[in-house]
Amino acid sequence: MIGMGAMIGAGIFVLTGLAAEIAGPAAILVFALNGVVTAFTGLSYAELAASIPKSGGGYAFVREIFDDFASFIMGWMLWFAYMIAGALYALGFAPNFLELLHVYGVVPPPDQVGAVAVPVIDAALPLAFVLAFVAVLALVALNAVSTAASGSVETIFTIIKVSILGVFVAFGLSSPMFSGAEFQPLFPQGSGAAAVLPAMGLTFIAFEGYDLITTVTEEVQNPRENIPKAIFLSLAVTVVVYLAVVTVAVGTLGAQGLADAGEAGIATAATSFMPTGLPIIQNGGALIVFGAVFSTLTALNAVVIASSRVAFSMGREGQLLPSIGQIHHRYGTPFVAILTSAVVMLGSVALPTQSAGNMSSLFFLLSFIIVNVAVIRLRRERPNMNRPYEMPFYPVPPLIGIALNLLLTGVLVEYLLRTDPLALALSVAWILLGALVYFALKRVKGQSDSNQAAAATEITPEAED
């Protein structure tokens, strides 16, 4: 549920229209290919999680294999990527929740009725930020006092949103609009099949989430067996849900209509073929908004869990302040790590939304490359290590994973150079800040160790006598 809760987030609601705008009906192919790319790296995560059953996800694996500085930068990137994602989910929750309130006449209408994640009217902007902060604080408080409660909330909310998408697909497949669906020409005129790659790079964030499962390894029963199973199951279900939703959206609204609707594409499609006057949920658009609210909450809760576990693991390894790596004596949770992550997450709300999303995608792609390298290096350096799960056809999957993630990284960087250089600048700045923090903490730790050693060897006058 952590993996599905993170992957089936706001991405499927707001990125489908973007994919259709770039790739036309081939948006279906875009999501399918991203699922394939993700699966190769998923195999590496599964093998490493079974071999190294430690919380912290990709950071824990790299820490086991690479030197201090490389593992710190890996953890630093992952930690920030999760926190940025959390800020984006919180900001996505606010307008969706306001739109849901508007459906029931509680607040004035946003600029576009029935839309998902569209800007709200100026008077409501302060309220949107307040709602984002409240969502973060509520889930942080829940995670800080009870791991079991946060897990239960994740399970319930994820079941609700998957059920809503199931209703969307069922109505869509049975509608007359879908019976006359036209998926040709598959690729847009002019760009052709070349449009698939940039669409993959921009929508890849929708598949980020299965890696969150490995951040809670030590909190799972029989992790060597259950973590790989959870990775594969969450990926399989997510890919099936995505393909069904995108196929219905393109088949009913058409690629051009979906592109014109933009971020509101799924809601517009639902409004076009679902009946009105439904009990509680008044129409298809309202149902999708309802699903988007739960999607952003589950994704936000998942990254609150994941970011705090990465910080906790780094603190436990001595690469952040020791207090961050401690378990609360009463609640049994990484209390300080959760609060620290929350502070940075709330600060990330101030970042430009598009740049923050691009930074998150870039850091995740880089981390996936490193994880694939890590599984190869671990095989070479520790061939006799206990591996309860071994990927098939090694070393083909990690090599393909490295190549595909490098390709998507290159496509994304080229796109950012043209359209969002701020995201690249902020990414470099965060890594440089991480290097400064690393050497500063190392220097402080070195001085502390020297002082302790000096105190231990100091000979008092009484001892001399």
TrEMBL record:
Which Pfam family is one of those matched by this entry? AA_permease_2
Q: Which PANTHER family match?
A: AMINO ACID TRANSPORTER-RELATED, INNER MEMBRANE TRANSPORT PROTEIN YBAT
Q: What is its main location?
A: membrane
Q: What is this protein called?
A: Cationic amino acid transporter
> What is an example of a GO molecular function annotated in this UniProt entry?
transmembrane transporter activity
Its domain of life reads Archaea
InterPro entries (UniProt xref): AA/rel_permease1, APC_superfamily
Q: Which residues cross the membrane?
A: 69-91, 123-144, 156-178, 190-210, 230-250, 287-312, 333-353, 359-378, 399-417, 423-441
What subcellular locations does the record give?
Answer: Cell membrane
- GO CC entries: plasma membrane
